[in-house]
Design a protein that fits this description.
By secondary structure, the protein is α+β, with helices and mostly antiparallel strands. The protein is built from nine helices and 29 strands. It starts with a strand and ends with a helix.
């Protein structure tokens, strides 16, 4: 039998709609009858209880995770004849960045995309109709809530209802015994490493031809990419001041765009250029025309997944914003020319970990390479971890010079702060980068390290080369610009 009844306490107070700040440690407790046992699980994970001699109260210590959100709580008390259960939720609240700052970070990240495009092109390419590469803020809501977008939605809804095109496609080699049925010999080919199976002589590995939906359906791919771009752009607008009527219309349009996108079972793929796709139907021509209009009116923008970071992952939003801001500051350095970049693919900006975001060259022969979440392993080149750990800072600037050993400037975003200052644990983590990344001869490779955190005031510079640098949207970003220029100047002189 399952009945309700136990009273669960949080720090001695009945746990009715409790709110716990991120990373805080709290104590849950509940009076349990003699001979019964209790189990408390939060987000599906059971906690380890502790009991005091002679006390009927069961207690559990719990540290709130570092991710804001709502977590389910379940208390189960098991006696000899009955099971008593209590279910509820606990709300983990952001402890460091509030909703206002989250919105400011997201809004500034949206502004950084056209500014980066403008800087990458030497100031020659205005990414929108505004000044200095900024898009026209009035054009975007007008386009999203206007009749052209309504016409696009109707076209993509018709495209989604069309039957998928199918064709025969070769799949990778598979063991013959893993196939549900023996394939038609006309639809398979022997794998290069196959061996005959006795006694029939069938190959043990074959490549099978299957009748699958055509992955090269360009119209569906382009329509999905246009919808993703519009949804991301509309969400970015919602964090900015808008008239109430315009906000309501925008929310309704975003809802229709999301519903239309759900009808396309295609993944996000790199933007397909117009030379690779020729629209064949009237609806596809509408999509193509809207795509061209969007490129003119909206300029450039981030990949959709970057602007969909939820509030509970504000630490990830902060680190991506920090790296994007560092990239813009590097592009403002005089005498440095862009040698290569991987931030933009067509009109879409992204942060990739596979290759440098930026590579800059100096007339002296020096180079700078900005990397996002680089991995420094014990066997990596030219920089390595000096112990058996893999070290992954949020950002790193790798520099070379014709007459000097290569080195690193590490930038790591620390979401944690205590009254505008970094806690000691965050500084200790910074020293692990400072001393733990080096050259293959064991020498130190990190020339300077900045721990970026959401705060205000002047940076704190330590003699070790570590700097605690407050960084938030607004005037505070000038501090990062000055710090980078000084450290890069030291690296090339």
């Amino acid at each position: 039998m399952v009945v309700a009844g136990p009273v669960l306490l949080l720090d001695g107070v009945p746990a009715a709609a409790p709110i716990v700040p991120e990373r805080n440690v709290v104590e849950w407790s509940c009076a349990v009858p003699a001979g019964a046992t209790a189990q408390l699980a939060i987000d599906g994970e059971p906690l380890e209880p502790f009991l005091r001699p002679g006390d009927s109260m069961w207690r559990w210590r719990w540290q709130a995770p570092a991710a804001a959100g709502v977590y389910p709580v379940r208390l189960t008390i098991t006696a000899a004849t009955q099971v008593t259960e209590w279910r509820g939720t606990v709300h983990v609240a952001p402890s460091l960045l509030d909703a206002r700052r989250y919105a400011a970070l997201l809004a500034d990240l949206v502004q950084l995309a056209p500014a980066l495009a403008h800087a990458l092109n030497g100031g020659r390419y205005a990414a929108g109709s505004g000044a200095s590469g900024y898009p026209d803020r009035a054009a975007l809501p007008a386009l999203l809530t206007g009749p052209l977008t309504q016409r696009l939605i109707a076209a993509v809804e018709r495209l989604a209802r069309q039957p998928r095109q199918r064709r025969w496609q070769w799949e990778g080699p598979r063991e013959l015994g893993m196939l549900r049925e023996r394939p038609d010999p006309a639809r398979w080919r022997i794998a290069s490493d196959a061996a005959p199976l006795p006694p029939a002589g069938w190959p043990d590995r074959v490549g099978v031809q299957a009748y699958r939906p055509d992955p090269l359906e360009r119209g569906r791919q382009v329509a999905a990419q246009v919808l993703d771009r519009l949804i991301a752009s509309g969400q970015a607008l919602l964090v900015m001041p808008l008239p109430a009527e315009a906000r309501v219309r925008l929310v309704m349009v975003i809802g229709r765009l999301r519903a239309a996108r759900l009808q396309f079972d295609v993944n996000n793929q790199p933007l397909i250029g117009r030379p690779m796709w020729r629209p064949r139907s009237r609806d596809e021509r509408i999509v193509a025309a809207y795509q061209r209009l969007m490129q003119r009116r909206l300029g450039v923008g981030w990949a959709p997944e970057l602007l969909e970071i939820p509030v509970r992952e504000v630490a990830r939003l902060y680190e991506t914003w920090c790296v994007a801001r560092v990239g813009l500051d590097l592009l403002s350095l005089s005498d440095w020319q862009v040698h290569d970049q991987s931030i933009f693919a067509g009109q879409t900006a992204q942060l990739t970990t596979q290759q440098p975001l930026l590579v800059l060259a100096h007339p002296t022969g020096a180079t700078l390479a900005l990397r996002y979440q680089p991995r420094y392993a014990p066997d990596s080149q030219p920089f390595r971890s000096l112990d058996d750990r893999v070290r992954v800072p949020d950002g790193a600037i790798e520099f070379t010079h014709p007459r000097r050993a290569p080195g690193l400037i590490v930038l790591d975003a620390k979401y944690r702060s205590e009254e505008g200052a970094l806690p000691a644990s965050a500084i200790d983590e910074g020293y692990s980068y400072l001393a733990g990344i080096g050259h293959h001869d064991g020498s130190r490779a990190v020339a300077a390290l900045a721990l970026l955190f959401p705060g205000s005031g002047a940076p704190v510079v330590y003699a070790s080369g570590l700097t605690a640098l407050p960084l938030l949207p607004g005037e505070q970003t000038r501090t990062l610009t000055a710090w980078l220029r000084d450290r890069i100047l030291d690296a090339i002189i």
